[in-house]
Design a protein that fits this description.
Its EC number is 3.6.1.7. GO terms for molecular function: acylphosphatase activity. Keywords: Hydrolase. Pfam families: Acylphosphatase (PF00708). Helix content is 27%, strand content 43%. The protein contains two helices and five strands, in the order E-H-E-E-H-E-E. By secondary structure, the chain is α+β, with helices and mostly antiparallel strands. The relative contact order is 0.35. A hairpin with a 5-residue loop joins strand 2 and strand 3. It has a five-stranded mixed beta sheet with strand order 4-1-3-2-5, with helices on one face.
Length: 89
């Protein structure tokens, strides 16, 4: 069963290829949604997929790409939006 997560990642997560790397991870895990930089320096993502795959994605989000320094990840569940692919904006 597909579920939808709203994810906010704090730390050194902008300017370190976090969003592009998140897209690669999402594509491998068949997750759709989007990632965007926020004005407070965080990255906000919405992600949809099978719970098992989203759980793996969350594990990835807690580490991020090599140059990132993730301090905190906030996750909340919300209704499906039926995204067709994962996009970076």
């Amino acid at each position: 069963m597909k579920i939808h997560y709203n994810i906010k990642i704090y730390g050194l997560v902008q300017g370190v290829f976090f969003r592009a790397s998140a897209k690669e991870a999402a594509d491998k895990l068949e997750i759709s949604g989007f990632a965007k930089n926020m004005s407070d320096g965080s990255v906000y993502m919405e992600a949809e997929g099978e719970k098992e795959n989203l759980d793996k994605f969350i594990v990835w989000c807690n580490q991020g790409p090599m140059m990132a320094q993730v301090e905190k990840v906030e996750i909340s569940e919300s209704p499906l939006k039926n995204f067709s692919r994962f996009e970076v904006s």
